[in-house]
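Q: I have 224 residues here and want to know how they pack in 3D. Can you give me a structure?
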Amino acid sequence: MSLKDNSQHKILSIRISTDGFYFSTHLCNVRKEFINTDHFMQLRTELENFLKQQTDVESLEVDFETPKFALFPPDYASAEADFAQLFEVSADEKILQCVLPQNILMLFAVNEQMWSYFLSHFKNIKFRHSLTSVFEKIDAVAEPKKLYLDVYSDKLYAVISENGKVIFANSFAYDSDEMFVYQVANIFVQFSLNQQEMEVNYTDFDIAKAKKKLLQKYVKRLIF
């Protein structure tokens, strides 16, 4: 997946997934896979070491990858309560929200310990879901259907747009190459997409790079 261009604003971008994380500034970037079960401890140690070398960071942007997300109309009054019930949000999770460029309210649940750490150590901070960057790519103009896939080692996220509108967004778990291909193929069947003509915008985390080759056998127009 591409890193943000932070050259004009001294922004530290952090992307956290179940596979690992990366830090990105206008000077450098670091990618790490999680190597133990205590993700928070590893993330905090790596971040504090990283910041020792970065003296000009003015703001922080944190993207969380989590399958616990949902989209609502912006004026949906009981969005948080319905979300908490739907996903059975636990006491160690925090519900966050952001408004997408399509004027859609997005709610997502994150690890509260990580959220609290960032909030207590940084003043100028923005929290987003990792799919936010996908929604930002959708042009608000008349155009045919487009499929966006964001892939990790055990799950994939799919977003479909048409004429500048989001018509589908969901996550799918998989535990084998066969299941991965099945999940993607099922999306094509469900929405009557043509695997020879459909433009598929593809991003992934490093540990899932091998899935790209699998898709290239199935999808003709795969854009990285």
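Q: Anything worth noting?
A: The domain at 1-136 is CATH 3.30.420.250 (Nucleotidyltransferase; domain 5). Residues 84 and 90 are 8 Å apart (CA to CA).
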